[in-house]
């Protein structure tokens, strides 16, 4: 349903979308079904949106990257938003420079949070109020970023990690960890988040206690832990070590453009 007077320039937006009369959707944006666009939302031409998303008032999606050298560059990449994404008031999501800025299915971006250019926020992650995600950063599946945390550009937050409120994230954070402080440091395993998100059952917690032991031993027992770890834990563990060591070589965890979902993936 399009409200009278809505500034939607594209005629092919499906009528199941609810667009407030003050919302502005530029011609060229690709919009799926059953989305909500609140007052003064701005969706630029380079944005692709799936189905069942909710954009509250004053959010701005797809404006140019905050990058002095590339702000005016032609051919910037766009923004891809999946299905069931919730974007609260005053959220800003910039378009990409070398990657498509991507917000995957089920992500919640709370009031005033910011996803910088080329960032990737993966399935069901929660980005709390006032969080700033620097350019090219990755927040992996079901990670939870606490109020006002700031993530340095080109860093990766692992799956199921809990980043505490006010954290200053200077290095990539491993999955499954609760981490906080300035600079942000892993403190312990995020058992609550892992159980809630279905990453681990009560009976498998013992596997993950190995990670905790490992963290405490500062990687000293890497070989021993790999020997005793069940196969299904190894890939997680390897990722964990990549992230820990990835501070000087983030390319190991930075997804390539070819690995990112393409607009067509969302348009079944
Ligand atoms: C990180 C967090 C999950 C708690 O982790 P925790 O390890 O269980 O922390 P505890 O509550 O046991 O506190 C342990 C210590 O860390 C401190 N601490 C807790 N959170 C902290 C944070 N974000 N930054 C700095 N220190 C913190 C506590 O003050 C306590 O210090 P003390 O030992 O000197 O008393 C929580 O504090 C947090 O930041 N949650 C996010 C809240 C949020 O953003 N909510 C969103 C609402 S929409």
Low-confidence stretches: 246-255, 260-268
How big is the Rg?
19 Å
Report strand order across the widest sheet.
2-5-8-11-14-17-20-23-25-26
Ligand list: coenzyme A
On the 0 to 100 scale, the average pLDDT is: 80
What is the makeup of the main sheet? 10 strands, mixed
User: Quick one: overall form?
Assistant: globular
List keywords for this structure.
268 residues; ten-stranded mixed beta sheet; alpha/beta; binds coenzyme A; nine-stranded parallel beta sheet; 26 strands; disordered C terminus
Provide a descriptive summary of the structure in words:
The chain has helices at 191-196, 205-216, 222-228, 231-245, and strands at 7-8, 18-19, 24-25, 30-31, 36-37, 42-43, 47-49, 54-55, 60-63, 79-81, 86-87, 92-94, 101-103, 108-109, 114-115, 120-121, 126-127, 132-133, 138-139, 144-145, 150-151, 156-157, 162-163, 168-169, 177-180, 185-189. By secondary structure, the chain is of the alpha/beta class. The strands form 3 sheets. Strands 2-5-8-11-14-17-20-23-25-26 form a 10-stranded mixed sheet. Strands 1-3-6-9-12-15-18-21-24 form a 9-stranded parallel sheet, with no helix packed on it. The radius of gyration is 19 Å and the shape is globular. It starts with 6 loop residues before the first strand and ends in a 23-residue tail after the last helix. Mean pLDDT is 80; it is low at 246-255 and 260-268. The chain binds coenzyme A. The site of coenzyme A has 11 residues, from β25. Coenzyme A is lined by residues 128, 146-147, 162, 164-166, 178, 180-181, 187.
């Amino acid at each position: 349903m399009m409200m009278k007077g809505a500034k939607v320039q594209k005629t092919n937006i499906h009528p199941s979308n609810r667009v407030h009369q003050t919302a502005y959707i530029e011609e060229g944006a690709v919009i799926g079904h059953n989305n909500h666009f609140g007052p003064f939302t701005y969706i630029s031409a380079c944005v692709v949106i799936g189905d069942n998303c909710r954009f509250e008032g004053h959010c701005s999606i797809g404006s140019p990257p905050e990058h002095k050298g590339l702000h005016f560059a032609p051919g910037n990449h766009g923004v891809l938003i999946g299905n069931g994404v919730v974007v609260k008031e005053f959220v800003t999501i910039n378009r990409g420079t070398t990657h498509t800025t991507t917000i995957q299915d089920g992500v919640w971006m709370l009031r005033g949070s910011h996803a910088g250019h080329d960032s990737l926020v993966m399935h069901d992650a929660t980005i709390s109020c006032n969080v700033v995600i620097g350019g090219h950063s990755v927040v992996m599946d079901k990670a939870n970023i606490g109020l006002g945390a700031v993530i340095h550009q080109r860093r990766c937050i692992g799956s199921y990690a809990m980043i505490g409120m006010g954290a200053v994230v200077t290095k990539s954070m491993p999955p499954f960890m609760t981490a906080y402080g300035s600079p942000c440091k892993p403190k312990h395993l995020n058992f609550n988040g892992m159980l809630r998100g279905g990453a681990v059952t009560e009976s498998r917690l013992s596997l993950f206690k190995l990670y905790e032991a490992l963290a405490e031993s500062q990687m000293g027992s890497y070989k021993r832990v790999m020997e005793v770890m069940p196969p299904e834990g190894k890939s997680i563990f390897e990722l964990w070590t990549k992230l820990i060591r990835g501070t000087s070589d983030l390319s190991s965890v930075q997804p390539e453009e070819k690995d990112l979902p393409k607009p067509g993936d969302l348009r079944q």
